[in-house]
Amino acid sequence: MTNDWTYCDGNGKLTGRISRRNFLAGTSATLLAAALGSSALAQVLVSEQPKTQNTLVVIFLRGGADGLNWVVPYFESGYYAARPSLSIPAPNSAGGDKARAFDLDGKFGLHPSFGALRDRIGEGEVAFVHACGSGDRTRSHFEAMSLMERGLFREESGNWQGWLGAYLKAVPRSDAAVRAVAIGSLMPDSLTGSSALALSSLQDLHIDSQDTDQISALRKSYADARGDRMGDAGSRLFQALDRLKDLNAKTYRPGGNAKYPVSDLGEGLRQVAMLIKARVGLEVACLDRGSWDTHVSQGSTTGWFADNVQDVADSLEAFRRDLGSGMENVTVVVQTEFGRRVQENVVLGTDHGRGSVMMVMGGGVRGGMVHGAWPGLGKEDLDEVGDLRVVNDYRNVLGEILTKRFGLRHANQVFHDLDYRTLEVLA
Amino acid sequence: MDRIDSAKAAAIGLGAVALAGCERFITTALPENFEPGSAPEESRFLARAGFGARPGEAEALKVQGQQAWIDSQLKGDAEEPNTLQSRLFKLDVLRLDTSDLFDLPEGEVMRQLQTAAILRAVYSPNQLRERMVDFWVNHFNIYAPKEDGTFFLARDQETVVRKHALGSFPEMVKASAHSPAMLRYLDNAGNKKGQPNENYARELMELHTLGVDGGYTQKDVQEVARCLTGWTVENRFMRPRGKFRFDSNLHDTGEKHVLGHVIPANGGEQDGERVLEIVAMHPSTARHLARKLCRYFGLTETASRIENLTRTYLDNQGQIAPVVRLVVEDAEFTAPESRVVKRPFDLIVSAIRQFGGDTDGRKPLIQHLDAMRQPLLNWPMPDGFPVDTEAWETTLLARWNFALALSEDRIGGTSIPKRELEKKGKDQVATLAAKLALNRTEEQGFSFTKNIALCVASPDFQWR
After folding, report:
1. ipTM of model
2. Which of A161, A209, A237 to mutate to test the interface with B (most CBs of B within 10 A)?
3. Topology classification of domain A50-201+249-413
4. Structural domain total, chain B
5. N- to C-terminal Cα distance for chain B?
6. pTM > 0.90
């Protein structure tokens, strides 16, 4: 098979596409560099797909991530009063970088274990929305996740379609071999109503036959049926499988010397990066990161929660490096079903709460800041049982991403009863 | 569910004992003159009007004639073979009442429901009826995981869709409106005076009857919801779960106006019954069904065809058989270009049938349906699994892997009689594979097994 994804060293921006045929036909590297612009060769692609595909990567933090210890409102005295043991010291505290938050905007700071993304945040590639969530008041993981995955604010009858399923239906495309995947064996409810694939790994994306003659015959039968919808779909799939094979999961070398952490999320993002590079038409990828239900011994700058936060940051930094300039076409959104009680509990954990954090990273993000409203942490500011109030509907963030980056005409096509207001998280 | 009467059950039970330990056997002996591909038009006809021809069936149809086939199939009462009856008899979901099913794990109940659907499509001689069951199951779709729907679905399938598949549409709508599974799925079970829930009322008109452009208003939706207040499911202490119940205490007794009809005050349960009569025989419903049938069977929605089907429906008081007759007798019905993409369920059933295969319809086969993204009875929206090509063209990899697994005997409980096929029809299968998969006629020299895989995985085989 032709290797039509040639990975070259460097950080140049990809400004054009040059066919491998031209490349082999004797175009000199210098000419090619000129054609690509001033920078060095980044990637040389043979493209059979005319337009660049934007990819949405949705990472769901399952269990209710504590937004307050992740994006720390260090300007609120109420935060420190409520969390004598668990709070993250403000950026100007003594004790060194690992023992205090790093500053975001003079009011909020980030957990020190999120440090792998510090430069990206500083460069404005990562944005946050705080006090964000749904109207769920059951504080049940199941109920709250189910609401979010169906794109609802509060429970209502009838709607069992996932928000991503609704999006894929609202913006139909038929030139993708693999339009949507869930990495992990389970299909999240957000993709319900779509024909997304659930992959426990990219190894699942293969034809169960060792017989090359038989596979060639199958390939030919689809090539001969070009023009037939299924014929075209099969030919696209063969191309995608070829590219994936060339990238080979075992020998794959990530770009930018990226080192993915040895974790489910790291491995999952590595696979998403491969799918993106294989240009299979990937539009949506869903990943889960569990273990956020920190009722007991949550830890502060170190410990359980810190390890979780570090895994997210390390995995995403590796993903960012791996994709290089390709990140321009990617939007990563990190969400969780609810936040946690402001007051720490007697076993040094936090209980189920309401508002938490959403994070958005990638092309076109207006980053380095916290968007949306902030309800405050004073006694009178809190929800009935002492929770950070939800003042930013999570769907406004998702709606903005889908409309600005993914061709959805109006957010209400996916979020039917949303009174859509952009938080201007994206440019 | 109503129990199968005991005499019949005993007889079948004996059969089941006799068959114990003999799960895999050839149910349909292959005919001597097996010539696949020799009756292409009949093959297409059977792939569309049913789930595909078993070996020899297309050739037999050529002799019998389509007209005679249609006449007998529209009755839909051919006796089911013992193979099918004995396998269905083993399924608790077809024997137990809803309330008793709650003693079983939900996953097991779900698998049995899926098994029953596969077995019937594969083995039933009433192929047109099974084809229409597939149509109606999706028309009155219920998402099993919602509100314990799994446990209520067995009865729903028997009393709504299977009972009326070729009978009366107004009766089917009525049965569906009384079905605990539907009442729960679309929330009418909680629709009460003062706190109306419009979900079922809306889908009744939008999807089940009039169609989205069928001329009803939001006001009609609200009024229909009022008429249906109190239509709920038995859930009182010590009463068997899973029966329809009209609770007059929850019913809105006021006067209502539905689609131009006045529903007088104090009608009680009759309000709902009246609504169902109005919507079931509404001209928009006839048109909606006509269009939907055309899409399902790949017929062009020309004005005259829709008009003809619509009139037939109305002239026959909503009887389904005369309408279906027009569809399958349509000159366009067997035309090569009237094709529709096979949903995964169509694919597995037609592959097994085409090669004279045998299946227990259990988990290993069901898993292939899941991988191809058609987990039966698990479509969340009330509109049913889609028929459009776009929805299915990204499922090819799983289809290819199914074809390979089937041909290589890697699906537990499912097999095709390769040795017998090879003896009787090797050359023909090779020719057919060459035609279907390779788009040319010369023999490729592949093994028989490989040819079967190429057939099932081919672009052509993805269409019915």
Report:
1. 0.87
2. A209
3. Alkaline Phosphatase, subunit A (3.40.720)
4. 2
5. 34
6. no
